[in-house]
From TrEMBL:
<keyword id="KW-0576">Peroxisome</keyword>
<dbReference type="InterPro" id="IPR001753">
    <property type="entry name" value="Enoyl-CoA_hydra/iso"/>
</dbReference>
<dbReference type="GO" id="GO:0004165">
    <property type="term" value="F:delta(3)-delta(2)-enoyl-CoA isomerase activity"/>
</dbReference>
<keyword id="KW-0413">Isomerase</keyword>
<protein>
    <submittedName>
        <fullName>Enoyl-CoA hydratase/isomerase family protein</fullName>
    </submittedName>
</protein>
<dbReference type="InterPro" id="IPR051053">
    <property type="entry name" value="ECH/Chromodomain_protein"/>
</dbReference>
<dbReference type="Pfam" id="PF00378">
    <property type="entry name" value="ECH_1"/>
</dbReference>
<dbReference type="InterPro" id="IPR029045">
    <property type="entry name" value="ClpP/crotonase-like_dom_sf"/>
</dbReference>
Amino acid sequence: MRAALVTIDIADGVATVTLDRPERHNALIPELLEDLRWAIAEARKHDVFALVLAGAGQSFSTGGDIGGFLASCETSGGIGAYAERIVGLLNAAILDLLDFPFPVVARLNGPVTGGSIGLVLAGDIVLMSEAAFLQSYYVEVGFAPDGGWTAMLPERIGPARAVAIQALNRRIEAPEALALGLASEVVAEDALDAAVSRTIETLRTKERHSLSATRRLVWDEARRAAIAARLEAEKDTFCALVGRPDVANRMRAFVDRR
């Protein structure tokens, strides 16, 4: 099954959801996030014990599509309305993943930048290719962080380290991601699918009710509510900053460099 920008395959108790905009490195736009939310909801309708989240092509996802933000400057609603929509949808998709009743396995085949990190932080088992990395880029274009860079990352790696990584726009390569606990396993590029299969087969041997209970208790109402509030604060700050003239100039310069 597929929506326009996301595919979903359900087989042998596993839902594989793939971001499918490879010509743009699966960069996030509202339509892709709407399709992702549809796919997660579709997966919940089936008798599965795991969800695998992947990206087609060379990247997992390069975050918000800067071209979409620039184009929104010329629309009647403007960039503020576009930001409200896209970050709101991203937050909703992250919460959808946290609400999924069984383990979420993230397959990182390549770059994970900007807000797409939230889709990774909402996962439980992160399998990372040696070619993959994490990077924020917000201080380059003048955006406020979204996607959990402030709402979820500090709890994982510590507040000071989370600030430093973003302030310096420092790239987190796969070995460091493993050392920080952001990745569960790092493998060679050609071994990534085997690692996913091995993980799924291990999960298949486990008791389903225990898998579900563990995830439900970890991502309980209190923890989810705290994350939701922080994600909302990210959105509010993002929308407050994005309309400044220097942000538009930085976005154009960023696109030109690419």
